Amino acid sequence: MSERAIRIRAGALIWRDGEVLLVRHEKAGRSYWLVPGGGVDTGETMAAAAARELLEETGYEVEIGRLLLVCEAIDPKPGGRHIVNTVYAGKVRGGALSVGVDDRSLRDARWQPVAALGELEMYPPIGAALLACCREDGAGAVRVLGNTWRPFDG
Questions:
Q1: Count of helix runs (H) and strand runs (E) in the chain
Q2: Beta carbons of 105 and 25 less than 8 angstroms apart
Q3: Cβ atoms of residues 67 and 10 within 8 Å
Q4: How far is CA 115 from CA 10, 19, 35, 127, 136, in A?
Q5: 121 Cβ neighbours under 8 A, 6+ residues apart
Q6: Three-state DSSP class for residue 133
Q7: Are 145 and 69 in contact (CB under 8 A)?
Q8: Could you read off the pLDDT of 60-107 as tens digits, one per residue?
Q9: Which side of the chain, N or C, has fewer Cβ within a 10 Å radius?
Q10: Rounded Cα gap, residues 72 and 7, in angstroms
Q11: DSSP code per residue over 45-74
């Protein structure tokens, strides 16, 4: 069996007044949305990583709350990527919305209508689960979605 690194990505779902904070990325000419977040650094907690990434990508200082969702994206190709995605509830505590410049694929950060979670192109494809989290006001059971990998070639 081939060895592959497992990447842990921590993000935060932030919703308020019927809107949700999302970031838009672009890779290989394709545009998609996801909750702000990113990779966990060695020695960093997932919650700390989510807060750091939110600040870097959106300009917002956030308070990270409870875990809402866990899923994986396991590319079946030999040597393909394996990403464990964690999504926490979050609340904006300061800062101002601005699009980060550190990530080479980050293109936008904006408040979208919560209902858009069911319609936007998202990677991983977890929009419906995120929408359910918002509708439950973050109080539902932690969602464990398993392997949500799908090819990024449309």
A1: 2, 9
A2: yes
A3: no
A4: 23, 8, 14, 9, 13
A5: 30, 31, 32, 33
A6: helix
A7: yes
A8: 999 999 999 999 999 888 888 899 999 999 999 999 999 987 667 899
A9: N
A10: 10
A11: -HHHHHHHHHHHHHSEEEEEEEEEEEEEEE
DSSP string for residues in 108-127: EEEEEEGGGGGTS-BSSS-H
State whether CATH 3.40.50.1110 applies to domain 6-144. Answer: no
User: pTM above the 0.85 mark?
Assistant: yes
* Residue where the block lists tokens 């020695």: 43
Token pair in block for residue 79: 């040597």
Question: Is the predicted pLDDT of residue 154 greater than 50, yes or no?
Answer: no
Contacts by residues 130-139 (CB-CB < 8 Å, ≥ 24 positions apart):
130/13, 130/20, 130/35, 130/69, 130/87, 133/13, 133/68, 133/69, 133/87, 133/89, 134/13, 134/15, 134/20, 138/13, 138/65, 138/66, 138/68, 138/89
For 75: left if phi > 0, alpha if psi spans -120 to 50, otherwise beta; the answer is beta
